[in-house]
Amino acid sequence: MKKPIIGITSSYVDDRTLQTSYDNIRSVLRAGGTPFVLPNVTNQDHMSNYVNTVDGIVVTGGGDIDPTLFGEEPHPNLGLIHPDRDVFEVDLLKEAMKQDKPILAICRGCQILNIAAGGDMYQDIYTQMDHALLQHTQRAPRSHGSHFIEVTEGSLLHSISKQKKYKVNSFHHQTVREMAPGFNVIARSSDQVIEAFQSTKHTFVLGVQWHPECMTDEQSVRLFKAFIEAAEKKKKAIRNET
Predict the structure, then answer these.
(1) Is a pLDDT exceeding 80 seen at residue 242?
(2) The predicted structure's pLDDT at residue 1
């Protein structure tokens, strides 16, 4: 059987150029999937074709998210946004969840996943959260785990990592605030920032606030392998139905 095809979302370099980090591609390849980079096409007519083509989706990191998507005006510390990417990923995620395709949403990806499902986010944690915070935009190599997360026992992430506490990297100033209906928080940092959540209604829909694609530790490798295995199972299930 052919390897599962994994759609990987792309971010803007400028208004004319898209890119995705090769870390995303390398992680999918290493875990046994075939990477397939998706462009930000805002015509909804293409969404079902994209989702039908792939067996799973990695929603990658990147810039900030348009706050009008969840009913807010721009905060002074809001960074660069690309509305076309926001629209594309919201529509893509809604269609992927409708088809119950496996989703691994990373950093910015987990934030847009939560918004697509009906949640919201902090535009800037350092000015909008009312207590002392860790350094969530680390000054260290991307492969370095800079702070710990506490993982909920019995959660999807716990079953994958086999750990209740381990280190992750951190490159964000925005994060999930109100969790969308049908999702549970399954990991937090010591300052109570949401670090991971999962759907209660889908086979494998998982959001993580860190960048496992940049790391080579056992937990990161297991995470991508579990995601690819879920995509392979979905591929087999669809094949058996037809």
Answers:
(1) no
(2) 62
First vs last C-alpha separation in the chain:
15
User: Which two three-digit tokens encode residue 38?
Assistant: 């998706």
Q: CA 65, CA 29: separation in Å to the nearest integer?
A: 28
List active site positions: 107, 211, 213
Q: What are phi and psi of 45, to 5 degrees?
A: -60, -20
Q: Angle between the 22-31 and 218-241 helix axes, to the nearest 10 degrees? A: 70
What angle (nearest 5°) sits at the alpha carbon of residue 100, between those of residues 111 and 51? Answer: 80
Query: Could you tell me where the DSSP H helices lie in the chain?
Result: 22-31, 47-53, 83-98, 108-116, 125-128, 156-161, 218-241
How high does pLDDT run on average in the chain?
Answer: 96
Which residues touch 221 (CB under 8 Å, ≥6 apart)?
30, 31
Spell out the residues 6+ positions from residue 39 whose beta carbon is closer than 8 angstroms to its own: 10, 18
The pTM of the full predicted model, rounded to 2 decimals, is: 0.97
The pLDDT tens digits of the residues spanning 186-200 come to: 999 999 999 999 999
